[in-house]
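As a warm-up, study this chain.
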Amino acid sequence: MHTVVLGSAGVTAADVVAVARHGAHIELSDDALAALKAARRTIDDLAAKPEPVYGVSTGFGALAVRHISPELRAQLQRNIVRSHAAGMGPRVEREVVRALMFLRLKTVASGHTGVRPEVAQAMAGMLNAGITPVVHEYGSLGCSGDLAPLSHCALALMGEGDAEGPDGAVKPAGELLAEHGLTPVELREKEGLALLNGTDGMLGMLVMALSDLDRLYTAADITAALTMEALLGTDKVLAPELHAIRPHPGQAASAANMLKVLQGSGLTGHHQDDAPRVQDAYSVRCAPQVAGAGRDTLAHARLVADRELAAAVDNPVVLADGRVESNGNFHGAPVGYVLDFLAIAAADLASIAERRTDRLLDKNRSHGLPAFLAGDPGVDSGLMIAQYTQAALVSELKRLAVPASADSIPSSAMQEDHVSMGWSAARKLRTAVENLARVIAVELYAATRAVELREGLTPAPATTAILRAVRDAGVQGPGEDRFLSPDLAAAEGFVRSGRLAEAAEGVTGPLA
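Now compare it with the structure written out below.
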C-alpha cells in the first residue's frame, strides 16, 4: 500500500487523492513530531499565565470576551466540538470526509496549531483504520473554515457520534475505535478549536475535482475530434501555427490533442464537394478555444490549490518565534472563487459538447447522416432522447455555474459578518463534474455511432482503436432502437475511468 509521510511543510495534490480515494497509509515524520512538541510547549506556557489568550483560555467567536478558568478548559474544548457538530442533511461522500480529515491533519502536523503529537497520531490512526466520521451536507459557511463538517470529524476522534467502518457499516464512533484498538482523545487547551478551524473540506473537494477535470478535458478533446471526423469537418483549423498567434497554452494543448487523434483520418476535409463548406460551425471549429480556456482555468485553480496545500490554516496560530496570533487565514475566499470559476468552465465545456451532439443528430446539418443516427428513421428514434438527457444535464450545469462565493450571510452575532460559502461552491462543483462526464459520454456515444455510419470511409487509426475499446466496454453501435440507458451508463463509465484516453493514447502517444 502507498504510504504518505506527513512533514511540517504541507502535502501534494497527489497525496490528497491517494489518501481520500485509495486508502494510502499515513505516517508522521520526525520533523512533524518535533514541530508539534515545540508548538505545544508554547500553548502550555500560555495556558499557565493569567492573561486571557483566544482559543486557549477564552470562549469562541462572539463569546471570546469570557476568560475560562483552568478547571473548565477541557470541558470548553469538548463543548466546542459537540456544539459545532450541528450538520444536517444527507451524508457527505466517504472520499470527501477522508480528504477533510487528512488536510486537517496536514495543518495540525505543521506545528502552527499547538495540538499535541498524540492527537495528530490519533487522527492518522483513524484514517489508517478506515474509520470515516458521518458528516452532513449542510453546516459550513466556509468561514471560519468548514466548522460543522470538521466538528463531526473531531467528535468521532473523541469517541462520540457516528462513523462508518472500513466495511461500510455505520456504528457509534467509540465502538469503531475500540474495534481497531484506538483510544478516544481527551482534548486539552486549544485542541478543540484547532481541529475545526480550516478550509479543509472545500480544499479537498477542489483537489479531487481538479483530478477528475484533468481526465474530462482530455476526453472532451477526443470526443470533439470524433465529432469533427463524423461531420466530415476540416482539421486545418487545428494547425499549430494558427494557435501560436493566440498563445493561450490550454488552447494549443487542446488543438494538439485533436490533431493527434485525427492523424491519418480518411474523413476529415476530403468529402465536402457535394455541400461545400468554407468553415465548420463554431461548436466544431472553436472546440480548442473553449476547451483551452477551461484548461487555463484549471491551471489557475491548481496554483491556488497548491498554495493552500502548503498553508497552515488555523486561528490563532503559533508562529516560529513563539507568538500566538489571531488572524483571518481561515477565510475560504481564495478557494471559493476558483471552485466557482471551475463550475463556469465545466458548464461551458458541456454546452459546446451538447451543441456538437445535436449537430450530429440533425439530418439538415450532419452532412449526410441519418436523422438522429437512427437505423430506420421514423420507425426508429435513434438517439433523439439521448440528446434530451444531455440537454437536461447542460441546463443543470448552467444553474450550478451561478457563483456561491458571491453570497455571504452574517453569523455568530455579527462577529463573523462576511463568509466565503466555499463549501457550497465545492458541493455544487462536485455535481457539475459528475454531470460533465455524462455530457461527454453522450457525445462519445453519438460520435462513435456516426463515424461507423460513414460506410466506405476510413477513420483515423486512433478513432478505430477507440471504436474497438468502446464496443468492448459494452457500448453498442448503430442499429435498431433498443434500451439506451445501459449503453449511456457504459459510455459514462468508459469516460470516467480514463479508458477513452487510454484507447486513444495507444495510437497517439500521450495526450495533454
